[in-house]
Amino acid sequence: MAARSRRARILTKRRPLRWRAGSGTTLSPPACLTIATRESALALWQANHVRERLSALYPGLAVDILGLTTQGDRLLSSSLAKVGGKGLFIKELEDALASERADIAVHSMKDVPVSLPPGFAIAAVTERDDPRDAFVSKQYSQLRSLPDGSRVGTSSLRRESQLRARYPQLEVAPLRGNVLTRLRRLDEEQYAAVILAVAGLKRLGLAGRITTVLEPEDSLPAPGQGALAIECRAARVDLVDMLAPLNHFESEWCVRAERSVSRALSGSCAVPIGAFAQRLSNSVHLRGLVASPDGSRYVWAERRAASLSTDPEELGLALAHELLAGGARDILAALNL
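^ thats the sequence. predicted structure below, dont judge the formating
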């Protein structure tokens, strides 16, 4: 598919903007930035959202969008766990950064592997949207309303394992493709219900398709779900400083805690792992789970921190150790991890 390119331009003349890099050196921003993104409707929405934020911050900046098809977009007949995991959705975008065809890449944070390749950095985590999962059905109001044997579609081992553990009477079937493709298959009655991310449906103007929002106790989100990651080459200090205003501290803190859990557990698409950090009125609540793919073994743990001044990665590591001690080690060993 040919790459799509759009440019936001300013018609009025403005003096060049300047800001200070972390070293104290005053830098001039580039005249134009190129954002690498997947070409799905949701990914393009995300890239355009970041473009609009950048244009508002730096009115003299032109922003191009470079649309790319990733290997994860092409391999729709197999589960991600079987064909290589989350990295399949970002490799082509990182190649564009490495070759300087693009300056930044915008990802759904839940699709970003917990360890980046050398030379790359997450420069900003945007303010998180609703991180929960959504139950979507044309006939039934909630999961427990589904008749025995009903077919529920999901692309995620995390969602599948939780469904199998809580609703063993249901048939959980694989469902790949973009959001619109998954909804079309539901409308064609290939499934009685599908489980999707609330944030993706809202961003596409499809909040009306949500039947019920699943609380974390019923479907613990993936690490980073609902947040966007802006990636660049680590050497681009100018971009790291330029993107700093887009970083939302609370969202970044929560995402770092969640990803720390996943990293300590060798998290990948082959392991059903959930992690969700949430700031409450007087503490931060971190929950995590590890399950076997068939839902027969299930370990849940939670921790609290007094405030966001706590090191999020230490909190995540502590929770991961608690999960391992509670039985996650045996689950991971059975998966040969």
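Confidence is low (pLDDT under 50) at residues 1-24.
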